[in-house]
């Protein structure tokens, strides 16, 4: 008994159907290649009938390259990172590139695995969305002529996209001071990224300059549970030590702070003003109506792709840094 094994339609199958050579099929699918209108029409008709698709991966390997672009990120499903991954993926697809998500961590072993996958598949570029790539990652990218874009930190070793944390965090402190708040808190995270550190330092510096009493509390992680747990420890202090305003390093932690305050019977913003950072979709929900600073994932993705285009056009150009502003979005929490 014969078994009909399914397989991909090949260029040779198209050539037989169209009555042309294999090389004519290849030329028909190569932009700018020389092929007659008659041959092109025959090939396209046969390809449509057979459901043929060009094997871009094979083409890339033959050309010692590909259209794969690696997105290296920790916890891509969480908070603002999910929005940024979505925006980058869409922008890359529109560009004609193929996004490959590498869900990894900050450890050297995890980064080494990501490096092996991306360079082994001849990725045309790598975009790191979190953490800092080890120096050997950067060096290997440079040796292979592969553009490397880092989002979320100032990095002199490669092209980078960076949010203006300093202006936003200082604005938060000034807003609290203008509202008459006296005892403010910074809600940070124990496993701080460069972005988080910048926000923490800028807020605390500005608040102290304005004469505000500043306390700092950090969650185990920069998520809802981290914000809720850190806020509970904050309100375990005597009431006289409770803050009347909290700046949170991201929206997820701010949601935890708002829920914690309400569990204590406090009113937001009357008893406690809360400002977040990111402006993820849930920030606009009636349950939170969070005043926050907006990171626009579409703008950041566009900046990353501009850096990629520039790097590919000018491989030897000095590294570039693109800074993106984070405008204030006023709602009801502050």
Fold and architecture overview:
There is one protein chain. With 334 residues, this protein is an alpha/beta fold. It has three domains: 11-54, no CATH class; 68-163 and 297-326, Response regulator (Rossmann fold, 3-Layer(aba) Sandwich); 165-293, Response regulator (Rossmann fold, 3-Layer(aba) Sandwich), CATH 3.40.50. Helices cover 44% and strands 16% of the residues. It has twelve helices and twelve strands. The protein has a six-stranded parallel beta sheet, sandwiched between helices. The chain has a four-stranded parallel beta sheet with strand order 7-6-8-9, with helices on both faces. Helix 1 (11-18) crosses helix 3, helix 5 (79-95) packs across helix 12 and helix 10 crosses helix 11 (251-263). The longest helix is centred in the N-terminal third of the chain and has 17 residues, at 79-95. The radius of gyration is 26 Å and the shape is elongated. One of its GO terms (molecular function) is DNA binding.
- Average pLDDT, all residues: 87
Strand content: 15-25%
Shape call = elongated
- Across the major sheet, the strand order is 2-1-3-4-5-11
Largest sheet: number of strands, sense, barrel closure? 6 strands, parallel
Q: What is the tally of helical segments?
A: 12
Look at the helices and sheets and give the structural class.
Answer: alpha/beta
CATH homology superfamily of the largest domain: Response regulator
CATH architecture of the largest domain: 3-Layer(aba) Sandwich
